[in-house]
């Protein structure tokens, strides 16, 4: 049954429905219904196109992207610590445990203050939308109230979001001023968050979902991990956590359970097809097989890999193993709120994984994994769009019928960042690469989520 078209968008679009490939839809027309869902894509050479264009123009339903502008799918950022936004760019030369103790925990503890939380979260959601991220997976602070408020802010601003309240209850691992009071309170708060955020989601057009969010094993007691696993089974809610991020975490978990993160989390009931595992550079082939079997998604955070893992996640192996992989900024384990920046970094760190980094050692001792580890710019674009959508099981990421109309309009002719290429290297792949590598936030002019205009810099 065809749905009624309420608006139509005319211009040239890039998207990547298939890993490793991209499509350039030149002079195409995208028809969108009243729910913000794509009804049909009329390609540039379709004989009906000019009649349709005229009809939509006459009825005031046509939006034309304009010359030098291109439509890209809204990005899907699957790992963001919302309360760490004021910390972005700070102390990234410290190891993870010190960064957490000295900066992150004191900062996150401030989100008991609702006024402060509203100010920071409102600014963050605006900053992400302004950079083209129409879907974001958030970890909130350990506070229930401000985490629910974050979901409400996303709903109001039109961003599709998954929102969790971070659980960290172990008195031996977390400061007294910032931790859950008990396993029962942490599980109870998470159950309340699930109900409240589901209600916010039901009232939104674009969708908002709750996420069960144990910070990582070292900050949680066995009891809370078991309780959250039971909650995952009884509610079917999404789950997110940090997994095998660094050597320190790896060793702590192995010492405590005699097994590594993936198996420990599985045995607590926290590994299923709704689980998002952040980072994962230390995930072995065998652990990866288990993830693929259980339908887990990995949030690849290339910046945080460099800062806190001192290792690079083997994205191409994960993909070959059949694991869902999306991209995350990891604000503020990565300093940038921009998925453009992370698309670039995913390519960059994969080059280091290929060859290894210490040129003083013989080639076979440098730690490089050899050919086949490189991520191309087109693959990275897929990770930031279709990959993220697949990871979450949500219909976004491409311009295909049945998907949400989530689009960012990139102007390649901005005065301070001309991406037109000056008439040379003008093939679609060259245009796309320039957009992905060189865009600044200023080049992103308009952003639509579920058919709603959620950011409009032209109107400023
Ligand atoms: N592991 C536990 N907490 C955190 C966090 O806030 N950021 C990162 N990158 N890793 C973590
Ligand atoms: Fe993180």
UniProtKB/TrEMBL annotation:
Record's family? Answer: Belongs to the metallo-dependent hydrolases superfamily. ATZ/TRZ family.
Q: Which domain of life is it from?
A: Bacteria
What are the GO MF terms of this UniProt record?
guanine deaminase activity; zinc ion binding
Protein name (Swiss-Prot/TrEMBL): Guanine deaminase
Entries under Pfam families matching the protein? Amidohydro_1 (PF01979)
The Amidohydrolase-related domain is annotated at 72-454
The alphabetized list of GO BP terms reads: guanine catabolic process
Q: Which reaction does it catalyse?
A: guanine + H2O + H(+) = xanthine + NH4(+)
Instruction: Describe the task this protein carries out.
Output: Catalyzes the hydrolytic deamination of guanine, producing xanthine and ammonia.
Q: What InterPro entries is this protein classified in?
A: Amidohydro-rel, Guanine_deaminase, Metal-dep_hydrolase_composite, Metal_Hydrolase, Metallo-dep_hydrolases
Keywords tagged on the record:
Hydrolase, Metal-binding, Zinc
NCBIfam families tied to this protein: guan_deamin
Gene3D superfamilies in the cross-refs: Metal-dependent hydrolases, Urease, subunit C, domain 1
């Amino acid at each position: 049954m065809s749905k009624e078209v309420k608006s139509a968008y005319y211009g040239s679009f890039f998207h990547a429905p298939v890993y490793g490939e991209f499509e350039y839809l030149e002079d195409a027309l995208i028809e969108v219904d009243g729910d913000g869902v794509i009804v049909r894509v009329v390609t540039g050479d379709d004989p009906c196109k000019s009649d349709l264009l005229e009809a939509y123009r006459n009825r005031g339903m046509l939006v034309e992207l304009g010359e030098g502008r291109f439509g890209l799918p809204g990005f899907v950022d699957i790992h963001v610590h919302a309360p760490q936004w004021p910390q972005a760019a700070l102390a990234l030369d410290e190891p993870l445990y010190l960064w957490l103790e000295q900066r992150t925990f004191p900062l996150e503890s401030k989100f008991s203050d609702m006024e402060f939380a509203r100010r920071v979260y409102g600014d963050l959601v605006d900053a992400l939308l302004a950079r083209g991220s129409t879907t974001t997976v958030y970890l909130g602070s350990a506070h229930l109230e401000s985490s629910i408020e974050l979901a409400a802010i996303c709903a109001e601003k039109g961003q599709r979001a998954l929102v969790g309240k971070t659980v960290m209850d172990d008195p031996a691992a977390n400061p007294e001023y910032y931790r859950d009071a008990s396993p029962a309170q942490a599980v109870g708060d998470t159950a309340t968050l699930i109900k409240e955020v589901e209600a916010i989601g039901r009232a939104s057009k674009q969708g908002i979902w709750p996420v069960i969010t144990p910070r990582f094993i070292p900050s949680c007691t066995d009891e809370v991990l078991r309780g959250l696993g039971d909650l995952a089974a009884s509610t079917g809610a999404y789950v997110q956590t940090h997994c095998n991020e660094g050597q320190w975490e790896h060793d702590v978990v192995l010492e405590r359970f005699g097994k590594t993160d993936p198996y420990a989390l599985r045995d607590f009931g926290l590994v299923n097809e709704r689980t998002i595992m952040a980072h994962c550079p230390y995930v072995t082939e065998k652990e990866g097989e288990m993830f693929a079997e259980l339908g887990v998604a990995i949030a690849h955070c290339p910046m945080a890999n460099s800062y806190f893992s001192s290792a690079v996640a083997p994205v191409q192996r994960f993909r070959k193993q059949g694991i869902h992989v999306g991209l995350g900024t990891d604000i503020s384990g990565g300093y940038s709120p921009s998925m453009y920046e992370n698309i670039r970094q995913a390519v960059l760190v994969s080059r280091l994984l290929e060859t290894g980094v210490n040129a003083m050692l013989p080639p076979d001792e440098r730690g490089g994994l050899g050919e086949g580890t490189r991520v191309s710019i087109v693959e990275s674009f897929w990770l930031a769009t279709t990959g993220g959508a697949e990871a979450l099981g949500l219909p976004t990421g491409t311009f295909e019928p049945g998907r949400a109309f989530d689009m960012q309009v990139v102007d390649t002719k901005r005065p301070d960042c001309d991406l037109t290429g000056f008439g040379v290297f003008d093939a679609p792949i060259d245009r796309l690469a320039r957009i992905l590598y060189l865009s600044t936030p200023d080049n992103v002019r308009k952003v639509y989520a579920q058919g709603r205009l959620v950011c409009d810099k032209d109107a400023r």
